[in-house]
Amino acid sequence: MSFNEVYITNTAAFFPNDPVSNDEMEDYLGYINDAPSRSKAIVLRNNGIKNRFYALTKEGKPTHTNAQMTAEAVRALFKDNPNGIKNIELLSTGTSTPDQLMPSHGVMVHGYLPETKPVEVVSPSGVCCAGMHAFKYAYLATKAGDVQQSVATGSERFSLSLLAGNFEDEAKRLKELVDDPYIGFEKEFLRWMLSDGAAAFHLSNKKNETGISLKVEWIEGFSYANELEPCMYQACEKMKDGSLKKLPGLYPAGIGRSIHHEY
Q1: Taking a C-beta distance cutoff of 8 angstroms, is the pair 7, 215 a contact?
Q2: According to CATH, what is the number of the domain 7-217?
Q3: pLDDT, tens digit, for every residue of 15-53?
């Protein structure tokens, strides 16, 4: 049995609104308990990031959904050949922050692309590896000959989860925040790491007639959940034994409890 070669024939990205400098971040995300963050400077000094993009205004009003940003990234793949978008046979969309629990993220993205045809959609999740899962699905489908052209995307819209209001109740409860500044750092860490945006890859079993094509040789991914405790989680609390306890109620991504990260 022979398999197709797979090439990345184009890439594109979409970032909402104007870039936000480090000095402006709390103007958008708000001040927890009306006080400047003590951990912000440490995180920014070490991560080296200079700007963020937020799908919201300074007043906290949303400007784009995750699905809208992703659709714009897909559309940008075909800015030089708009009719080419009609040749997509598979839309593989990875995200950890869909706009709702149902319908799936992929279906919502497709809904914002009325210029396409009926296509297969798939919606992998999984925090940092969501986009790679989407990429691998598109790669394998193209390699196997199930489709000739596919699009893989990765997108996140974390800004609504990073707003100060999602942290204030927790901060008021934790006396340890005063006694042990590291706990405060741990709770806030991802506020100064994450932002919003979407990217897309166009995959094909044929090279570009002109221009660059990147051949995909292989993709491998491994989970070590059998050996390690969860280190990044949302809408739950980590117990002393390493297990996760779900918080009461449902918290759709983007409007739920704050995200927690630890080393």
Answers
A1: yes
A2: 3.40.47.10
A3: 999 999 999 999 999 988 788 888 888 889 888 999 999
